[in-house]
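Severity: low
Component: inverse-folding endpoint
Summary: output formatting inconsistent between runs
Steps to reproduce: submit the following structure tokens with default settings.
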């Protein structure tokens, strides 16, 4: 499994903490705490020193500490890395987070824009498109 980047983890955890008052945010936050509890039980790295249930999503210092610990510990704990990747992928859409990966060889982006007074009747916008397109 490709491992999500530290930036994605940071952004997703921050978004989950900020949205913890909503149903989707609360679900993402609780799922994250489950991941952190499993890491703690394994005794992996500094995760063993954090009590996930005591992390208040409204406390920036506590959230930053949780992020730093999980990001650092995933380097030495493949199970944690996989769990964080699965968590981020599962909750990315609800948290409005774009998932990027550490080992991605293609860091390019594409922005497709039609704006102002453009009069377009048919358009295909995208990236890495192959095949045949027919407009009737």
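Observed output (run 2 of 3):
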């Amino acid at each position: 499994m490709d491992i999500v980047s530290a930036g994605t983890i940071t952004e997703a955890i921050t978004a989950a903490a900020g949205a913890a008052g909503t149903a989707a945010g609360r679900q993402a936050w609780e799922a994250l705490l489950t991941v952190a509890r499993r890491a703690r039980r394994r005794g992996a790295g500094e995760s063993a020193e954090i009590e996930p249930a005591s992390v208040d999503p409204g406390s920036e210092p506590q959230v930053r500490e949780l992020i730093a610990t999980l990001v650092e510990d995933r380097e030495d704990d493949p199970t944690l890395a996989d769990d964080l990747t699965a968590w981020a992928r599962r909750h990315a859409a609800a948290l409005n987070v774009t998932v990027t990966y550490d080992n991605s060889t293609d860091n390019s982006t594409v922005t497709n824009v039609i704006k102002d007074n453009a009069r377009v009747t048919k358009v295909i916008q995208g990236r890495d498109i192959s095949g045949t397109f027919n407009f009737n």
